[in-house]
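Course assignment 3, question 2. Fill in each field.
Student: A.L.
Task: Predict the tertiary structure for the chain below.
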Amino acid sequence: MRKLIATLFLACVPLLGHAEPRYALLSLLSDRLTIVNRDMATGSNIDRNLRDYVAIPGNLLDKNMVLAMDDGLRAAGVKTQPVMLFTSDPKIFARQAALLDASAGTAALLDAVRPVLRGVDASHLILATKYRHDARLRVDDGYVGTGQLEGLGFYVDRTYETRHVGTTATAPGYLSAFAYFKLALLDLATGQVMREVPVFASETSMGRESQTGHPWDAMTPEQKVAALDHLLKTETPIAMRKLVAP
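Answer field:
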């Protein structure tokens, strides 16, 4: 009998060693939006685009982002219920900005978010952070944009003529909603970044869709929020499946 019990115990050890991770989900994308106005100067590689920043009350899009991350886990076949976290601590967002400027890796941000993880029953953290990359905004006939973008926001170009594929019609300027972020999978026991997946997504409206003649008015305020939300809900599950793939 003892031999049988020992055999059964040893048979279970490999299964215990391969228990599914328990994920905590946290997004640090929506403390503010970045409004980028393309600089018209030419002949320089320096990013001279003008930037304005608009605070998002309640960091609403981060809450939506965590829900999109959860949807991505379900789509990837993860059965363990994740721990969905939220923070609006300005110190954490300030630390993220400083590390982004210093081109530091995601692991350097872990200490800043440890207070949010206190008491959380999770083996791994999936963290959504802002990511800086060259502008690559989708239009009908390819990609446009100059300078670099990061996080969530809008890119405004008042002069570029976007041509509609299959027609001769042009539109003066465009407005593009963008979401430039990175998903990182971290082992909370070791602090190691196990995998990262960057996302560069955009949704563009043509200048001729504006009744005022300014591309910024090509979307209503409600449409602007909906465009960002759509990018997060569409792109995040795809990236999540890559992140937690075997």
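Instructor remarks: The CA atoms of residues 83 and 120 lie 8 Å apart. Helices lie at 2-17, 60-75, 90-101, 110-117, 221-243.
Grade: pending
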